[in-house]
Amino acid sequence: MPFFSVIIPTYNRAEILTRALNSILNQSFSDWELIIVDDGSNDNTKEIVQVFLKDFRIKYYLQENQGVCTARNLGSEKSTGIYIAFLDSDDYVSETWLIDFYNEIQKSNADIVRCKTLINNISENEDQDLLSGNFAVKKDLFLEVGKYDPNLKFGENTELKWRLEERKGIFSYISKFNFFYDNDLTSNTDKKKENQIEFTYYVLSKHQNLFKKNKRWAQLVYQIAGVNCMQLGRKKEGRNLIWKGYFSNPKHIKSLFRAIKYSVNKA
Predict the structure, then answer these.
(1) Which segments constitute the Glycosyltransferase 2-like domain (predicted)?
(2) Alpha carbon of 134 to those of 94, 172, 196: distances in Å?
(3) Taking the model in full, what pTM does it have?
(4) Which residue in 62, 76, 137, 164 is deepest, having the highest Cβ count within 10 Å?
């Protein structure tokens, strides 16, 4: 049984997948297995992966295209490690990614351990969010909370974090930049906004009790979705969401100013 199962979902990224795979092969910590889940690629992903299957620690699974969350979940079901670490196929990690996770787990007995992230080679001031690549989670806990929610096309790591926190998972943090995240700034931003709006309606229904307890979270989720609606031209819906955000936590004055701003601004 390996200590870590690294799961890499991929879809039509044959031209860049090798970088992610090599970053795992170059780990200074060797007690790992790598599970590649091909989410129905129609490029030459399978041929690229075949070269790496000479390493007995690497396994490859092909599924019909069902989305990244389903691919990650399949990888977790096939895994045999004590902890799971996810990595998307267009990102990569440092050579000490796993050994630093391992050392922190031995020290703190954490259920979830995070490292710092460089996004497009730029340091982020806050690394509180989970991203696929900046954390490792105890497999038993990941399965216990229900894995990734396959209904989500946006914010799936944030929603997973909420469930891990509800289950009182022990979090720990490594103050090292071990994860390198490539954010595609040319991707369809309108589609991302639409996915975020769908995320809002879905999680507000799924996590009603959570948002009753944490009104600030509810406010942020409402108002971010509202601003996205405004930018997509869905102005009535946007203003409604922004005001709902304010009334969910009326003590937060900045949210009132935001609601007034978008109510006055008819553009």
Answers:
(1) 5-129
(2) 11, 12, 21
(3) 0.91
(4) 137
